[in-house]
């Protein structure tokens, strides 16, 4: 704003208010947006992290929605096609303000707010974060390659080796959901054929469609049908990108999104809204987190290709939002544009000279965050131009951002300090604590900020009794904030090489730029779950919540319950900015087009404002 590149935000700030907005603890999107919707703290709405832990198995589990397999169900893939109502539940408790407005005579349109799956039964809703892909996952893409490629370090991707014949023709298939009628749980699949095209690109046949793609080009949406039995088939949509040309082609296939024109599970309210909307604006991403951040993090697609995909997401969201604005038949309209968040996650390396990848960033990467904010400003300008004089506009973010330079293996710290004990002879553990001896362990970390005591009677193999649990909690709350950064020798060497690329000059610069901040505190504060989560809705609340200092964050392995070798590793991944740290370091922002009667300083206060304003405006209407 100070640089003058966000004129509409500046105008809005002048017209109403603009100030920081305190976020939830932890400052994670599903947690904060649930507070936004319900006005409740996490202890009451029950969403504490992206991941919860299953106390019976110590395994990570998605915390937002849950599928209950009932008797009367066609159990296709992890998803299940519900033949009855209510097989998929939103784990969030409480009533969102848009539903309250409806119970008091208003109408609400809510577009892609996180943690709205399955959709609330309101005037109009498109479900957001929580909607799975056709495999039942949160987004699994497929990379077809003729080159030897290591399997990706994430379950979010599938790498498939392709073998061309002499003319370059490749016959393979795209695997869909598991065949419910096959006893060996084979996947349903649809043929995929590649051939070299005269233009230099590739001719690709998938489902009923044949298209030609140039290198780097995104295809339009392609519908893929997986035949289950006779007339029963499930429909998905994908986009393709030819990542590399013949003679050694590579093809990227996006996660298989649920087809909005024939959704196998409800993704909108009313159920036909998704199809109607697709009729007006074309096919669109339906998966809850459609930005495919993992494909960029694994270097399976380029910065440019990813940003083009992101722009498609933004265009779809914009079209949905203005479709609803044009309808102009709701008293409350809520839309979440997550693209500023995703670009900041993936391109913080372009504005953080101390990030390990900064020396390798080019102009595109360095300008990406400013670009997405100017896009946000453009959309804001359009909204302001279309508002009625009596409309009230609130623009907010659920959290801010910080650099993510160092990955913290918190479970390694717990092992090194005697809280978590590995099986005899083991020095590391895979995810889900595969090598942990629970009969000797008192605490473990899982999710982005959660720490749990191995409590007797709660955890399957719990050993800690009640009075001792409080002693352990108090010790961790004291010891963790005293942890000062001291990288082992091996870690320092690792900072010099990122993915085996161009170490020479860039590496030298990187070495200089990312000198480890020896002695710096890793964790600012550890919060007591009993204090900050009074109520413990869902019973999922962590015993402790870890507030990392900016530039540190839980490693991906920590989130899934693994114990790697090192305490702290340089983050050489493109996912280079984050906000899952101490909340006071990453507040969101709030703009209003009016002067609020009561200050709105915390994200959970927005719901109360909306409810009160609706009541008041009703009372004032003669
Ligand atoms: Zn985020």
Gist of the model:
The protein is of the alpha+beta class and 622 residues long.
Fold and architecture overview:
The protein has 622 residues and is an alpha+beta fold. Among the domains are: 141-254, no CATH class; 404-582, no CATH class. Helices cover 26% and strands 23% of the residues. It is built from 16 helices and 32 strands. The relative contact order is 0.16. The structure holds zinc ion. Zinc ion binds next to helix 8. Zinc ion binds at residues 29, 341, 345, 579.
Taken from the alpha-carbon principal axes, the silhouette is globular
Number of strands: 32
Alpha-carbon distance between the two ends = 41 Å
Helix content: 25-40%
Radius of gyration: 25 Å
Q: Overall pLDDT, averaged?
A: 90
Show unreliable segments.
69-86, 490-513
Total count of helical runs of at least 4 residues = 16
Bound molecules: zinc ion
Largest β-sheet summary? 4 strands, mixed
Oligomer: single chain
Strand content: 15-25%
Which structural class is indicated by helix and strand composition? alpha+beta
Strands of the biggest beta sheet: in what spatial order? 21-9-8-22
């Amino acid at each position: 704003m100070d640089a003058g590149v966000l004129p509409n935000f500046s105008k809005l700030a002048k017209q109403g208010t603009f100030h920081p907005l305190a976020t939830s603890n932890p400052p994670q999107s599903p947690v904060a947006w649930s507070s936004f919707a319900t006005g409740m703290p996490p202890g009451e709405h029950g969403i504490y992290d992206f991941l919860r832990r299953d106390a019976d198995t110590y395994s990570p589990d998605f915390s937002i929605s849950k599928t209950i397999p009932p008797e009367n169900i066609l159990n296709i893939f992890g998803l299940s096609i519900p033949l009855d109502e209510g097989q998929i539940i939103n784990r969030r408790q409480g009533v969102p303000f848009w539903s309250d407005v409806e119970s008091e005579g208003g109408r609400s349109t809510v577009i892609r707010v996180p943690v709205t799956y399955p959709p609330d039964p309101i005037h109009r809703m498109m479900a957001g974060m929580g909607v799975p892909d056709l495999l039942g996952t949160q987004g699994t893409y497929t990379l077809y390659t003729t080159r030897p490629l290591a399997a990706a370090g994430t379950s979010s991707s599938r790498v498939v080796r392709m073998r061309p014949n002499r003319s370059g023709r490749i016959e393979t298939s795209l695997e869909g959901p598991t065949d419910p009628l096959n006893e060996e749980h084979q996947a349903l699949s649809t043929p995929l054929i590649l051939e070299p095209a005269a233009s230099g690109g590739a001719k690709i046949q998938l489902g009923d469609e044949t298209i030609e793609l140039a290198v780097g080009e995104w295809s339009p949406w392609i519908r893929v049908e997986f035949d289950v039995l006779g007339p029963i088939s499930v429909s998905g949509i994908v986009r393709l990108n030819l990542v590399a040309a013949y003679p050694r082609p590579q093809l990227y296939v996006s996660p298989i999104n649920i087809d909005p024109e024939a959704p196998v599970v409800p993704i909108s309210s009313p159920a036909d809204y998704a199809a109607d909307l697709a009729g007006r604006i074309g096919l669109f991403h339906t998966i809850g987190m459609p930005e495919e951040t993992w494909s960029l993090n694994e270097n399976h697609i380029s910065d440019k290709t990813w940003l083009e995909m992101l722009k498609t997401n933004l265009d779809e969201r914009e079209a949905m939002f203005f479709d609803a604005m044009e309808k102009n038949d709701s008293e409350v309209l809520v839309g979440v544009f997550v693209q500023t968040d995703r670009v900041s996650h993936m391109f913080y390396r372009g504005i953080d000279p101390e990030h390990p990848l900064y020396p390798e960033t080019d102009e595109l990467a360095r300008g990406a965050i400013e670009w997405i904010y100017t896009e946000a400003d453009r959309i804001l300008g359009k909204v302001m131009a279309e508002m009625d004089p009596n409309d009230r506009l609130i623009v907010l973010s659920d959290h801010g951002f910080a650099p993510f330079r160092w990955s913290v293996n918190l479970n390694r710290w717990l092992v090194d300090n005697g809280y978590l004990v590995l099986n005899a002879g083991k020095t590391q553990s895979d995810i889900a604590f595969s090598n942990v001896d629970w009969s000797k362990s008192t605490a473990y970390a899982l999710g982005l900020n959660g720490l749990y005591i191995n409590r007797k009677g709660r955890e399957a193999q719990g050993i800690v009794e009640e009075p001792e649990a409080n002693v352990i909690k108090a010790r961790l709350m004291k010891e963790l904030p005293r942890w000062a950064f001291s990288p082992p020798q091996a870690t320092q060497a690792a900072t010099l090489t990122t993915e085996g690329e161009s170490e020479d000059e860039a590496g030298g610069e990187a070495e200089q730029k990312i000198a480890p901040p020896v002695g710096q505190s890793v964790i600012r504060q550890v919060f007591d779950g009993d204090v900050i989560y009074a109520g413990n809705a869902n019973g999922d609340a962590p015993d402790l919540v870890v507030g990392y200092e900016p530039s540190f964050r839980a490693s991906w392995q920590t989130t899934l319950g693994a114990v790697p070798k090192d305490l702290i590793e340089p983050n050489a991944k493109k996912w280079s900015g984050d906000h899952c740290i101490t909340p006071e370091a990453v507040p969101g922002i709030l703009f209003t087009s009016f002067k609020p009667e009561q200050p709105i300083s915390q994200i959970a206060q927005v719901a109360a404002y909306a409810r009160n304003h609706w009541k008041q405006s009703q009372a004032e209407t003669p």
